[in-house]
Amino acid sequence: MADEDLNLRFTATGPGTPRPQPEEDEQRPSRVLLSQDNLFHSFSRSPIPSIRRRAAFMKSHAFCPHPDHRQTRITTSPHDPESRKTASRSVQAPMHVNFECPDCGLPVYCSEDHWMDDYEHHSEICDTLRQANEDDHDLHAGCRSSQDRWPGRQIEEIVPNMTNWDTYLYTREYTAINDERLLRQVTRLLTYPMTIGSILHELSPYNIRRGGRLTVEGLKSFSALRYTMHPPRDGSDGSIKTLRPRAPPVRIFILGARAESSLPRACWVQLEYLFHRCAIHLIFIGPESMSGSRDSEPIPERTPRNPFGGVVEDGITPDTKITTFTEYYHTMHKAQYFQPFDPYFDCFVLFHPGLGHPASAHEWEETIPQLLETKVPIICTGYTEWDMQRDKAWVEEKMKGEVDILMEAGENTFRSLRWDLNDADPGDLSCGNWGVWAFRGKRYVLLHAVSAQTL
Fold first, then answer.
1. Do strands 403-411 and 435-441 pair parallel, antiparallel, or not at all (unpaired)?
2. What's the pLDDT tens digit per position in 375-427?
3. Residue 317: which of 351, 258, 256, 275 has the closest Cα?
4. Of 205, 204, 254, 265, residue with least CA distance to 229
């Protein structure tokens, strides 16, 4: 899904309350509004121009998955449909998809004959593809609901339940979301802040009990951050007599930022609302950050006071600050722009980094050792279980034991409930932040003091 798709349904109009802006729709008379019972359309005949363009892209780039065709790429996963193509059977030349399945509306095969012959395999994902088709039309059509109003800050005595999406939405007093499609759209946005919040919160669903996935080293690292993010009450009432010094903000570095950097700021404010009396500084770093909003917010010129051209947003709420850099992290690390790092105040997050992917692994070979040197937690997510396990194996292999696993790899409690399409391969389905794990640079403990005479 394109990065700008995340902003089509919700528009941030205030801290914590995304709601529709009628005046924006009036400026776009060409926008097509579709009712909830009229969301299924084939991509090539869709009433939405951007979806028709996506269909044209699929037909010119995606290849037919039928096993009679020869492979078009080296398979990196056993779940890749290309792995079904063998040298003994696959004799036909590769062909682009041109036939749209009447059940899911997506171009999935080169011809109707191949679709019918391979229907048993296609039927495994056909229903999910149709669901993704309808969700895309719902998102682009601008069908909004009064349920799109999100809660603000709650009193401290109301404790959020972080067990799953349902308990979180209920205890945070969101307007009831009774429609599954709207729930999928909402979780697609909130999965980014809630993935971070669910790990750093003191009521996190991840713990050191059996099946809780948190390791002993993970408990040590995340307890340090939780100590800072849940400060004790100091008795201040806002008057001058009870003023107390405040701790510096917790810095959350989001590296390789893409779509998450362009999310409505009301989404990120929901992370702040989980923590009382704690300031949060979100730092997006990556050449693709702000890719969906560069026209409205141009990147400032680099100056001696702002050497990396950072875009600073410090007026969102009193306790939330967002800074975006369109630069590689390893360049900024060498310049010591963020040093020093403190395990009580710093955390790194990598959303779908593709550490072990052949096309992107080289981009992280210099960055990961730098992150391990800081000894602060690194939270990493993946699109699928295979993607996540591949990243974990790459880190363990490349770093040669200099890694402490903080949280075992597994399904993310606050993953996106919406399935996303890969336009270059319509049969490749994934969902945002499906899995999550965490690691850190290895710490060594001195057990015995060494005397000067021994040295």
1. antiparallel
2. 999 999 999 999 999 999 999 999 988 999 999 999 999 999 999 999 999 98
3. 275
4. 204
* Tokens, residue 388: 């996540």
Distance CA 352, CA 161 (A): 26
pLDDT for 101 equals 96
Residue 452's pLDDT is what? 56
6-50 confidence digits (pLDDT tens): 444 443 334 343 433 434 444 444 566 778 888 999 999 999 999
The confidence score (pLDDT) of residue 30 equals 53
Rg value, the chain, Cα: 24
Q: What are the structure tokens assigned to 88, written together?
A: 């003994």
Mode of pairing for the β-strands spanning 346-350 and 250-255: parallel
| pLDDT (average), residues 288-302 | 72
Dist CA 24 CA 41 (whole Å) = 25
